[in-house]
TrEMBL record:
Annotated source species: Paracoccus subflavus
Protein name: Ribosome hibernation promoting factor
CDD domains: RaiA
Subcellular location: Cytoplasm
Superkingdom, taxonomy of origin: Bacteria
Gene3D superfamilies recorded: Ribosome hibernation promotion factor-like, Sigma 54 modulation/S30EA ribosomal protein, C-terminal domain
The gene coding this protein: raiA
Family: Belongs to the HPF/YfiA ribosome-associated protein family. Long HPF subfamily.
Length: 191
């Protein structure tokens, strides 16, 4: 597994890098035999250290975890424990995912835009409520089953996931609802 370990305006020593590689490698190795790479980023916010980790699995799925503590090693351990819990929860499905799928998850390219947050700016434009695009970039949209999309959303810790439904090829969305349940949006015309 390839590791990218970095710090945002803090120095990451060799001892911490070695510790991260060893511990994270063991944690991910218990649940997935073929992780491809991991990105671990440390930063500091006032008196707290923050640790963000993203592990890319060979199936195309990503696992994300975040940890905070007053010491940098403790922040990593919190992050690693959260990742361990997520992987343990989905261990059976991750293993079954390898059996059902002979190829890794397929991704398609899509445009992604960041819009200005201030609605007052929108109204000041001549054409009414036209948002100002402040960033334009490419993103990847995976082709998954609904169950795999829910699992990917949970593993990545995001509130929603846009995906292409592998049954019919249409674009779908799964999202975390305010009541804690998961919603699924399938905009195909039903009549």
């Amino acid at each position: 597994m390839r590791f990218t370990i970095s710090g945002k305006q803090i120095d990451i020593g060799d001892a911490l890098s070695t510790h991260v590689k060893t511990e994270l490698g063991e944690t991910v190795g218990k649940y997935s035999q073929r992780p491809t790479d991991a990105t671990v980023t440390f930063s500091k916010d006032a008196h707290q250290f923050l640790c963000d980790a993203v592990v890319h699995l060979s199936t195309g799925l990503n696992v994300t975890a975040h940890g905070t503590a007053t010491e940098i090693y403790a922040a990593f351990e919190t992050c690693r424990e959260k990742m361990d819990k997520q992987l343990r929860r989905y261990k059976r499905r991750l293993k079954d995912h390898h059996k059902d799928r002979s190829e890794p998850v397929e991704f398609g390219q899509a445009g992604m835009y960041v819009l200005a947050a201030d609605e007052d700016e929108w109204e000041s434009q001549d054409s009414g409520l036209q948002p100002i695009i402040i960033a334009e970039m490419e993103t990847r949209v995976p082709t998954l089953s609904v169950g795999d999309a829910v699992m990917q959303m949970e593993l990545s810790g995001t509130p929603l996931l846009v995906f292409r439904n592998e049954k019919h090829g249409g674009v779908n969305v799964v999202h975390r609802r305010d009541d804690g349940n998961v919603g699924w949006i399938d905009p195909r015309g039903n009549g």
